Amino acid sequence: MSSLLKIEWTILSHETPLTNRPCSRCRAIRPFASTGKFRLNANGSRLDAWLVFSCLACGKRWNKTLFERRPVKSISREQLEALQANDPQFAERLALEGSNSTTEQPGYLALGVRITAQAERTRGEILLTVRNPSGSRVRLDRVLARGPMLTRKEVHRLAQNGVLEVQDASPKAIRRHVSGTATLAIFPDREKGISDLITQMLSACGSGRA
């Protein structure tokens, strides 16, 4: 067992509709978002079409069936061109029609959590990776506040005290939007009474407001 605890958070909020379904990799119900890509399979004069979705927690792909064995002649020219060109507006409309997620008010933020390496103790250094696969415009301090249910003021205090350090970035990165992936080092030994924070980070999976 490693002495370094590694945790991965995935931002699950998304600007486009989500489809909640079982993920075989996560082994749980996860939100899937459209990739905006279509998969086509021609069989003679008939066509199969799928809209490709991706699990926001792990990236597992799922092909949602649009139609099977449909005669090409029955498909309009505009629709066929949209499928072949991966037209983003057409893909978004189809994703909206098939969405089964609950509409949330502005300010909604959900996180998926995964422990990638378990540690022998919770007082050692923690490596936290924050993934933003959907490209949602959300600040890092908001994500860090959401996980253990802190205020942003508390997050900034932990950063100023050296408990939280954004790796390969300036200290100002904590106030900026998460672009792709952000990695932080967390040092519980630098502040007393922080064990509860670690417990909250391990159970941060879920949804809420920050």
TrEMBL record:
InterPro entries found in the cross-reference section: DUF1062
Pfam families documented for this protein: DUF1062
Name under which the protein is recorded: DUF1062 domain-containing protein
Lineage, highest ranks first: Bacteria, Pseudomonadati, Pseudomonadota, Alphaproteobacteria, Hyphomicrobiales
